[in-house]
Each structure stands twice: as structure tokens, then as C-alpha cells.
Amino acid sequence: MNSTVGSPARPSGLVPAPGQGQGPLMKPVLNRVLVVDDDEVVLRLVQLSLEKLGGLDVRTVNESANAISTAREYAPDLIVLDWMMPGADGVELFGQIRATPGLEAVPVVFLTVKTHWRMVDDLRKLGAAGVITKPFSARELATQLRTIWASLQSEGDSAR
């Protein structure tokens, strides 16, 4: 079973995170994805899925402590975060990303087993671009990320 929980659009009345949905700040094509997850098996599956099936350039990090420095060096178009990790969890890391100059506008998608609608809504209120549930389909993951990416592009176009 896999799914993208809810639509990538943010609930009405919420202000997008800085740079999210603001077309001029985003590249037209998704290419570089940083994946942060403490599970090496998940990291490898996501990397293979996005690189081999999706044709994306992927960098992985297995510790939240190394995520910010890797993101600064790699300059991803999009970041995929696990929610539950030792050390800083995905929500804490998301806050650190938003507070880091140069990363504050990078869209973030959560990849998580937490799928209760209130939890998903909380992530959206924080400014998450999307939420994809585990288990996920390796065949569909790149398409799901590109769909979220396209929705952010559309939001940027309509805001201009």
C-alpha cells in the first residue's frame, strides 16, 4: 500500500513557507533530491527508486545531525524527510531547514509511517510541501515527488 496523503495543496488560509509555491525561486524541473532517513534500507530503496526509475540525482543522509551541512553543500531542489529519527526528528529538522539561510525556500516532503489526518494536517500547517506514506511504491515515488513539485510550480504561477 502506498499513497500521497492529501493533496499537495495547502489548506486555505495558510501562508506558504518562505519560497514554497513562489515560482521565481524554484527551478522548473525537479532534479536534485536530498533524502534524510535513519533506516539504511529505506535510504537505499528510495535512492535506487529515484535514480534508476526516476532519473533524479539523489544524495542520502542517515543522521539528522548531518542533514543541514549536506543540504548546504548539495543544494537540493527538494528534501525528503523521515518523521521519526533519533536525535532531531523530522519536524525539528524541518524547523532547522527553514531557519537556515539558503535552505529556507527548499520544499520539504515527509516520508513517514505516521498517517493520521491530524498529523498530516500539522505537517502541512508547518509548510510541508507533501506527505508520502510508508510503505511506498518504489515505482511511483519519483512520480509522486514530481506531482508535488508541479503543484508547487502551479501555485507559484497563480501567485504571479
The rounded distance between the terminal residues' Cα atoms is: 37 Å
- How many helical elements? 5
On the 0-100 scale, what is the average pLDDT?
Answer: 82
The SS-based structural class is alpha/beta
Question: How many strand segments?
Answer: 5
Query: How would you sum up the major sheet?
Result: 5 strands, parallel
Outline the low-pLDDT stretches: 1-24
The portion of residues assigned to helices is: 25-40%
Spatial order of strands in the largest sheet: 2-1-3-4-5
Can you write the helix and strand succession as a string?
A: EHEHEHEHEH
Content of β-strand: 15-25%
CA radius of gyration: 14 Å
Q: Which shape, going by the Cα principal axes?
A: globular
How would you describe this protein?
This protein is of the alpha/beta class. Helices cover 38% and strands 15% of the residues. The protein has helices at residues 40-53, 67-74, 90-98, 117-126, 141-159, and strands spanning 32-36, 57-61, 78-82, 108-112, 130-133. The longest helix is centred in the C-terminal third of the chain and has 19 residues, at 141-159. The chain starts with 31 loop residues before the first strand and ends with a helix. Residues 1-24 have low confidence and may be disordered.
